[in-house]
Design goal:
The chain is mainly beta and 402 residues long. It has one domain: monomeric porin ompg (Porin). Helix content is 9%, strand content 45%. It is globular, with a radius of gyration of 22 Å.
Length: 402
Amino acid sequence: MKKILFVLTVLTIFSFVNTRTYAQGEAAVPFLLLAPDSRAGGIGESGSGLADNSSAIFWNPAGIAFLTGSEIGLTHSNWLPQFNLDLFYDYLTYRQYFEELDGSLTASITYMNYGEFVRTASSGPEIIGTFRSFDAALTIGYATKIHPDWGLGLNFRLIHSRLSDKPTENEQGSGVATTVSFDIAAMWRPETFNIPFVGDLGNKFSMGVNLSNLGPKIAYIDQAQADPIPTNFRLGFAVRLFEDDFNSLTYTLDFSKLLVDKGIAQTDQGLIGGDTLSVSGPVKRKEFYEAIFTAWGDQSFSEELRDIVTTMGLEYWYGDPSDFMFALRAGYFYEDPSFGNRKFITMGAGIRYDLYGFDFSYISTSVFKDGENHPLADTLRFSLLIGWGAVTENVRGFPRGL
């Protein structure tokens, strides 16, 4: 069990970290926050404003409202390569437009493999068996236009977490837990958007917002020790800086914040007039429908701002949208040193030919202090896309490069 605890601790740390010590950790099933696809991975993990392929199911499902046709996407990544562990991440997506529904139906499967673990007896090092651990999520959704400039997206998600197949010692539960969540998202992609001294950004600008993983807590042991799932808020922008018949350059910018009730640490001191506050037993957390509001004010205003993760990127395409195209990408991911301190540069590339597309992305931390030993260093993602049946409007404006 030591190995599985180590793996899950590392995964949690590098999914989201806060320097405060909380009673039960900040949230469970952190794999739901991992950037799943190579395209957005190459632009600093900033996809909620762009959201113009099937991976928008994760970034902003409302972006799919502006797409037609069908698409299948598959991403694979060996996770935390610096630890040489048997961790890998797979993400499968599908979307299809239905004229009779005036929108698209979507589905995705997310799978995080933690590998095989050895079970030992509590009385000594004797090996008594092995088991495998994983997290998985099945998502289905619907996206539609509610106005020529506005898209709406909704997701429903079934989450299954299998940390172990048997309880530890005399604990209740089995180490297996299941829960549900949903997402609600909106996208504004105006056909006309005149800005003084800038010009018309119609079909060149979009803004998206996504509130994801809204749902009840997940319990491995009992409800008294249940943990919240990682409800997350994303606000994203994308603007086409340049475009002609064969070239385009797009800038993306995302802001994200985890919206969970952090609870009170059993070892917190000085919370009330410098006195020590001692908490015994499980700490009761607010429910998700309360935390989406209270999480904006449980710290000082400056701390709330520093708790927001900022990501950005540039994507350049060259080629004929009706034939062959290739892309180059670069991005930057920043998290405040007091709230996780994840900082890295991303790079990526992609090609599109006929129905097919291929993307890869790479995380580099070597430009930062101690970056060469960072667990996310040298992380690679690979994605394959197959899309068909899109009408011409999907290769103009933002959806260029599908």
